[in-house]
Amino acid sequence: MSQLDDRLAGIPPTERVLLLSHCLRPSQTCPGKLAKRGLVCPESCTEDCVPGRLRRAALALGYKGVCIASGGSMAIKFVAEQSPRGIVAVACNKELNEGIEAVLGLATESEERPVIVVVPLTRDGCVDTEVDEAQALAAIGLGCSGANPCP
Ligand code: SF4
C-alpha cells in the first residue's frame, strides 16, 4: 500500500467521494443523462456496466457522493460542493493530473487538503474506455476490506 492508500484507509467512507469519468459508460446502450452534478443513472437502467458497479460499491460503503463527470471542471465543482476528506478518482492521466492540481488548489491554508487516490484507465480514448475494475474496487474499499469494519 502506498502512503496515500494508508491515509485514505483512515478516512471514513462518509467523508469520501468517488469520481468516475463518464467515458467509462457503454456509449451505445447507456440511457444516463448528463446533469449539473454528473451523469444521472435512471433507476430503470438494467445495464450491468463498470461505472454502475463502482458507483453502487461506493454508495454501499457509505460514500458521501459519487460523480460520473463529463470533465475535470464538473468533477472539481462536485468536490468543492462536497468538501470530502478523501477522493478516489478514476480517469485518464491527463484529466487526473489537471484535476488533482485543481482540487488541491481548492483547499485554503486553514483546511486539510483531501487525500486523493487515483486509478488510471487501462484503455484511454474518450469513449468506451476501460479500467481495472478490481483495482478500482480495492481503492474504493481501502480500510474496509475483509473482517475490518470501515473506519
Ligand atoms: S448504470 Fe451504466 S449504463 Fe446505466 S445509466 Fe448508469 S452509466 Fe449508464
Can you give keywords for this protein?
single chain; 151 residues; alpha/beta; 4-stranded parallel beta sheet; two-stranded antiparallel ribbon; 6 strands; globular; binds iron/sulfur cluster
Description:
The protein has helices spanning 3-9, 50-61, 72-82, 93-106, 133-140, and strands at residues 16-21, 33-35, 38-40, 65-69, 86-91, 115-120. The chain has 151 residues and is of the alpha/beta class. A 4-stranded parallel β-sheet has the order 4-1-5-6, with helices on both faces. Strands 2-3 form a two-stranded antiparallel ribbon. Helix 4 (93-106) links the parallel strand 5 and strand 6 (115-120). The two termini are 17 Å apart. The site of iron/sulfur cluster (SF4) has 12 residues, from helix 2.
